[in-house]
Structures are given as C-alpha cells and as structure tokens.
Amino acid sequence: MQITGLNDGGCLASLPLRTDRLRLRPVAFADAETITDMAGDAEVARTTSHIPHPYDLGMAKAWIAKVSQQTNSGELIALAIEDNESYDLIGVISLHLDGGRSAGELGFWIGRPYWGRGYASEAADAMVKFAFERLRLARVIAAAMPENTASVRIQENAGMVPCGQRVDEHNARGRTLVLEVRELTAAAYQALCVERRQILLVVAVALVDADGRVLLARRPEGKAMAGLWEFPGGKVHPGETPELALVRELQEELGIDITESCLAPFTFASHTYGDFHLMMPLYICRQWKGTVTPREGQILNWVRPSRMHRLPMPPADVPLVAMLRDLL
After folding, report:
1. Angle between helices 186-196 and 119-133 (to 10 degrees)
2. H or E segment at 303?
3. Which of 61, 80, 198, 320 has the fewest CB atoms within 10 Å distance of its CB?
C-alpha cells in the first residue's frame, strides 16, 4: 500500500511506529486472512461499533482496499499491530482525520488471544504521540460503549477525559447505540507529558536458582496490569536505598531473607507509563534464606530466560529479558 496523502512534512516517514513490544505498520492486503480470523470473532465484533458479524475474507479485503483509498486521500491512518519479535498480527489501530486535519478519532481492536496483556494501551499511547508530535493535531477523540470497560480504561490511560455522547449504528448488533466520547487536546497532552516526567523509583530482582531459572511473579487480580508476569520487587520508600528496599520487599512478598551483599547490580529499565515515568534498577541474587512463598496473592513461576518471551510482561520488564538471556 502506498501512503502519499499524509506524507507532507515527512509525518509518515517515521512509520512503522515501535514500542517496547510492538511494531505498528500500515495495513496490507497480506493481512486479510488474519484480520478475517480475528475480527470475525463474535466477541471482538461485540466490542466495536463498526465490525459486522459474521465477517468473511471478502469483507476484510474490501476494508483494506477502502483503507488504502482513505490513506491516500489523507482521511485515515490504519496500522496493523504486530509483535516486535514474532511479527504476528495481533490487532489494528486507526486514526480517522477530519477535513482540516486538525482532529482525529482513535479506534482499535485486539484479537482475543492477546487480550489482557496491555497491548492496546501500548499501541494507543504510540498513536496518540504520533498524532500530536508528528501530525500536529489539535485534538484526539475516542468513543466506546459504556459497558466496554476495557476500552474506556485504555482511553483514560491515554489521558482522555469525557466530552459528551453520540449515537452510532452498531453493525455487529444491528441496532443503534449511545457511545461515550472522550478527548485529549494538544495542550492537555503537553501537560501530561510534563506530568509523566515525574520519576517513580522501583527496584526489582532476578532470583536465580541452581538450575539457572529466574523467578517471575504474576500480578494478582485487582492490581494494575493484573495477569502480567514481572520480576519481584517494589517501590523504594523515601530514605531507602534500592538494596534495602529489595531486602524489605522480598521479606514481605516472598518470605525470604537476603542481605545487601547478596545483590549484584545488573541493569535498569526506563519506561513511561500512562501517568508516570518508571526507573527500575534490576539486581541479580543467587543466595537467600528461607523458602520462596507467595504472600500477596501472586502466582510464582521459575522460568528459564530463553522462555520468558512467551509470557506476557509489563513493557518496562520486556527489554530486560534479552539481557538476562545473554547472561544466563
């Protein structure tokens, strides 16, 4: 697909967009079968106002052809969301532009096998950044059914606030729906960027057993990013060193005793989330006293670094996996 209608000023020269885990590139006709399979899922169609059900290959090809025309005329940017490592297509994100290209409407869907991993939020953050910093839009909006709490949460995580309602035809359900609309202005986006520069210091550890496996903990339900696997650790309290914070956190979370001398500094993560910037030093620890026990509702798993990429992890943790793989 040729992209020409939005290429003034080189604003599309930065495609594909990349995040820690994702690659966002223009939708292509080669995506038709995968899009048919995922968008044809009734549960995916149910969460949108525009995907009909049933959904067949001819519909997917017609949609891609339409997207190509709209892109070339400057009406739309539609990007396939891919896994950075496997290049598997996991969803689509789009930005519909108004006639004067001063505002855009964000839309997205994720294939059901990839739900609950934070991919939609990661892709939405990248598209919002592209909209304001490359396209120089004045406003980005998004709409969702009130009961679609996942989409609402993604919009809110991107900084969007309620601005009204509208009525849409819901092709997947064959009826009219009232949608909640949220917006983010350029001024609010700039303020959010300043707010996100506030740094949160968190410390983590790679506990390594005698077989070279590393302990990961899955965040329990009710917490942010529930279901994702992460390295044990936690926030550094005022006046604490990262080492002392780890000694405390591992006692509280896992019931094990370590000393500062058992901790070897390894690397760090630096990542901007929705409302803060995370700095996270990662330590290596091979010796401790006591039996590792989940004390805070988390699920534990000893995983070889070569297999960690198979588990959904928070974006800040993902770059650390390759470094551990090289070390261990």
Report:
1. 120
2. strand 299-303
3. 198
Residue 285 in contact with residue 208, Cβ under 8 Å? yes
**Residue partners of 308: CB distance under 8 A and separation at least 6:** 214, 216, 229, 321, 324, 325
Question: Of 110, 105, 51, which Cα lies nearest the Cα of 83?
Answer: 110
Burial 100-139 (b: 16+ CB within 10 A, else e): ebebbbbbbbbbeebbebbbbbbbbbbbbbbbbebbebbb
**Span 226-283, pLDDT tens digits:** 899 999 999 999 999 999 999 999 999 999 999 877 899 999 999 887 668 899 999 9
Element (H, E) at 278: strand 277-285
Model confidence at 129: pLDDT above 90: yes
Residue 51 structure tokens = 């995907």
The span from the CA of 81 to the CA of 70, in Å, is 19
Instruction: Residue 126: name the closest of 82, 166, 72 by CA.
Output: 82
Number of H helices, E strands in the chain: 8, 15
Q: Is the pLDDT of residue 2 over 60?
A: no
Please state the rounded mean pLDDT for residues 70-79: 90
